[in-house]
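dumping the sequnces here before i forget
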Amino acid sequence: MAGGKGWLSRALAGMAARGEEPPSVDAARFQGPEDPFPGHWREFPARWPRIDPADLAVRARLRAAVGELPETWQAVVRQRDVRERPPAEVSADLGLTAAQQRAMLNRARAYLREQLAVLLNRASGR
Amino acid sequence: MTGAPHAGPAPRTLARRLRPLQAGVGLQGIILWVPVEKLFMTQIGFNAASIGVLAAAYAAVVPLLEVPSGILADRGSRRWVMVWSSVALAASSLLGGLSTNVVTYVVAAMILGVYFAMNSGTVDSIVYDLVLEETGSSALYETWIGRVRMVESGAFAASAVAGGALAGWTSARLTYFASVPFIALAVVAFLRFDEPRLHRSAEPAGLRSHIATTVRAMTRQRDVRQVMLLAALAALVATALFEFGPLWLIALHAPAAAFGPYWAALVSTGGVGGYLTARLRLDRRAALLLLACAGPAATVILAVSRSLAAVVVAQAVLALVVAIIGIRAGLLLHDAVPSTIRTAVASGAGTLSWLLFLPFSLVFGRVARDHGVQRSGWILAGAAALTGVMLAVTVFRRPRRVPQADTAAGAATAPADLACRKLVDLVTGYLDRVLPPDWRAGFEDHLADCTGCSEYVRQILLTIEALPVIDDIAGGT
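..and the predicted 3d for all of it:
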């Protein structure tokens, strides 16, 4: 029974693999192909109150959230957004292409925004 | 060029992190008993009919096991899923090797089902997430999963030859015990693997609407239905061949050592088929019709010939033909269904083939027991002929292509109307001022009209603004 099963999963994996690139934001936040406006927000992101970057809770949450990222994303976000280094230097340092560096930064920022949103919306009682 | 990144070279960390996984998959692929399994089974009291019943039970149980193990892999650590799958493989090999009767071997086979269920799709999703984690996009996924599969296929082919030789020198039973050390080493390799933290979160919409979309695509669109049936039939013939093919060698009293090269030839047809599909121009009708006839022709040889060489060649040809048809069906399906439901349709085709295989294996096994495996070759011929007919049907009725929004070509020119889902991917490219002018204009037009996206971008900017001070000493301003 070992052969047949493996054959099938491999043949079909080749096709399933060419799925869709996941967006930087959780795909469930957008309308699906069956909805009236595919690809548009199901619900707009809730508005944020003014935030003070020096706010301890904000800093603690962001620092922790950065630590939750995959290591390479952490390196990118620390160099680009915490230390504010130029993109080209960061890509070269980490051995990434400009596009890879940008894609990771974009995903990392989207995650950090989401974490901050959870904190802020809880604070404002939503 | 845009926020959607190109393949580009692989970062060094990706290759480094994948190495233990590749080693584990390769070691786990060294299952020395696979080529002589049917030989061993007949030695301990199985006949063609009980082999058929076992295969059918298997077809019923494994798809059921795949659901919980898939959930387990999505929720928990997939590295541990691979470890536990190895433990199940080792336990099954040990129990199988200790078996002296049908009952204990059936138990061993069911434990093997746990291994398959845990293994199926897990490596693919690990590699996918790792590539996404180390490059920020999935563009390099196919390259890297291809490398992992190459290591695995190499292990399958090498262990087929080695297992056959070992069984020839010693006994089929020993190949079961000899596989265990390799599985233990695979466990060590998996434990050394630094697994991705990301879990593929892209399960768009709810499961129910997902299934509804898939069923609609399958039932309303005749072309999708035809291609799914083609894929399922090709998988049915391949599964039947791997399951029952060795019975021909047993009937012709082939020596144990012959099973190794024979099995290596069968398992390598997947790789050869992929290579040929890439090289040959399979869009030509003549080539496809030749393919449609080659399968049934090979099965007729299986039903009438008593030459060992002819039977082995015919089985290899049949395996190659269905591998190519399977790949072609996959490509046709890829073109005919949108990417959001592709995975679901693919697993739908898989389920369909198991449903077909269940009665097939029961009938095939009974006929083989009562009238000899040659006679049941005609049943295989029927399935191969049906596959050929379905291939011919798809040749003359090409499924229409759905627009592929996610292809690289699609990203080259800016869409007239940018969706919010796409805009969130472009934010960093926009802020870095690297978007081409038409994309930049599209981005700004969308922001001007969309409250949701302008709020999103504002929040990203606030996040970036807050980041430089996260490491400042607590309380300092």
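DSSP finds 19 helices and no strands in chain B.
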